Amino acid sequence: MASLQEPDGVCLGPDGALWIADTAANTIVRFDPADGSWTTAGTAPQVDGPFDIKPGPDGASV
Fold it and tell me: Which residues contact 60 (CB under 8 A, 6 or more apart)?
């Protein structure tokens, strides 16, 4: 995993992973501390950077 460019928001998800909004990369990144894996959740080229990430209202999503 390349280093994060500009992390703007971090949220502990219900899955135990850290979900990170990386504004400069226009993406959301998932870090699983259980196995140390990093996953890019997707790139949204039409969006100029996600600026934050928060738990969902149901407690089962971010």
Answer: 14
Please give the structure tokens belonging to residue 24: 């400069």
- CB distance 18 to 33 below 8 Å: yes
Residues 22 and 2 sit within 8 Å (Cβ to Cβ): no
Taking a C-beta distance cutoff of 8 angstroms, is the pair 33, 17 a contact?
yes
Digit-by-digit pLDDT tens for the chain (62 residues) are 568 888 888 999 989 999 988 888 888 889 999 999 999 876 655 666 667 788 888 878 87
Paired strand residues for 7: 22
